[in-house]
Design goal:
59% of the residues lie in helices and 6% in strands. It is of the alpha+beta class.
């Protein structure tokens, strides 16, 4: 009976590791996709401003020396699965047991040591997420729970060793070689996934050119009052985005730019309208985007009535449904926030709201906005600002150099 329970424990250990491996692979795919601008819309786990795995994946803590933490997670689960299989076949695989007890002791001990070691970064990343980033990542939380479950199984295995047996950090030689091969192969997974997803990542030459152009400019004054925003009012870094609700590039930028800003506690994001629609942008020639003005006015009414959080919910929904956008759909999305139909209609049609749209468009034109999305950081235009790698680098530079902060 006890042997049957022990066998089941190893099987559940392997199953838990396999689930963790799948979670790790998806988390790695998500990390690579969003950091290379290959993610076309917000992830399912981008639930709110707090429960937001997109922002966590774009944070500086999502990689160690440029290597994704999710990639380390994949290696960890892969190696543990290999050691778990070695333990299973060494103890339960033979019909007539001819066990090497010393081999079993080493396998149990190495599994326990490895799973115990993993609790250290698990706890550290959890604390960083809650207290530094002030964000919750559902994918990360799942892996944290899996790591704890794995550790309890490993502790059970280790307790089966004789008390006189010391902890062996290394498994038997054959398993050690196999673990090394598994780790080496899985270490390539971030590069293989990057090759598959593609995306709009840029090389270092383009990055350096964008940085030189940005920091060579004199900062301009951009009004941030009366616009949707998040982040501290006295932030060291203020990112302003001029956007158009019918612009496909803006829809993609919305999955990156705000989430990068959320990943930095001393950064602020401000959304400004620059509809490519002559109905409220006098700088436009031709028809442009026929629903952009209506969407911008509606969003402004949501913001003035319900605040920034409601606006960003509206923005997320409009961009997610951009391909099927229509006047009734824009109204429907806005009404979800709790506005009455009559109040929304009155607001959208008011001359005051029209004047705000015209003023924002003229302001954008005056500081050099020629298309959308246009990203400005501390009053300086940032080329390729919707590319995660560029925006993160610039924010980090401002954070490190306080003399440039707020300019």
């Amino acid at each position: 009976m006890l042997r049957h329970q022990d066998k089941k424990a190893v099987q559940f250990f392997l199953l838990t590791n396999f689930i963790g491996f799948l979670v790790g692979l998806y988390t790695l795919w998500h990390h690579v996709s969003i950091n290379t601008n290959a993610l076309e819309r917000a992830s399912f786990c981008n639930v709110s401003s707090y429960i937001n795995c997109d922002a966590v994946a774009l944070s500086p803590y999502s990689a160690v020396f440029g290597y994704p933490v999710a990639g380390l997670l994949v290696i960890f689960y892969g190696v543990l699965m290999m050691l778990g299989l070695a333990l299973y076949f060494a103890e339960f695989g033979a019909s007539k047991p001819a066990k090497d007890e010393n081999e079993l002791h080493k396998l149990r001990s190495s599994i326990f040591v490895l799973s115990s070691f993993a609790l250290v970064p698990t706890a550290a990343l959890g604390l960083i997420s809650v207290f530094v980033l002030k964000l919750l990542c559902l994918l990360c939380l799942t892996s944290y729970l899996i790591n704890v479950v794995i550790w309890f199984f490993a502790l059970r295995f280790y307790r089966r060793n004789p008390k006189t047996e010391s902890i062996h950090a290394l498994p038997p030689k054959t398993s050690r070689i196999s673990a090394g091969i598994v780790a080496a192969v899985l270490a390539l997974s971030p590069f293989m996934i990057k090759g598959i997803v593609g995306g709009g990542d840029i090389d270092d030459n383009v990055l350096n050119s964008a940085l030189y152009s940005h920091f060579s400019q004199a900062p301009m004054t951009i009004s941030t009052e009366g616009s949707p925003s998040f982040g501290p009012a006295d932030a060291k870094v203020t990112v302003v985005e001029y956007s158009d609700f019918q612009c496909p590039h803006c829809a993609r930028a919305s999955t990156v730019v705000p989430q990068v800003v959320r990943a930095f506690s001393q950064a602020r994001f401000v959304f400004k309208n620059f509809p490519l629609d002559p109905n409220c942008n006098p700088t436009m020639q031709g028809r442009g985007h026929p629903l952009a003005c209506l969407a911008a006015k509606t969003g402004h009414c949501v913001f003035t009535s319900k605040g920034s959080d409601a606006f960003f919910d509206y923005e997320k929904s409009v961009f997610a449904k951009q391909a099927e956008l229509s006047a009734p759909l824009i109204e429907e999305i806005a009404l979800i926030g709790g506005l009455s139909k009559e109040a929304l209609k009155t607001c959208v049609e008011s001359p005051e709201v029209h004047a705000v749209m015209v003023a924002q468009s003229q302001e954008g034109k005056a500081i050099g906005v020629t298309g959308t999305p246009a990203i400005y950081v501390n009053g300086r235009k940032l080329d390729y600002g919707s590319v995660a790698k560029v925006l993160k680098t610039v924010i980090e530079r401002y954070s490190e150099n306080t003399s440039n902060a707020g300019k």
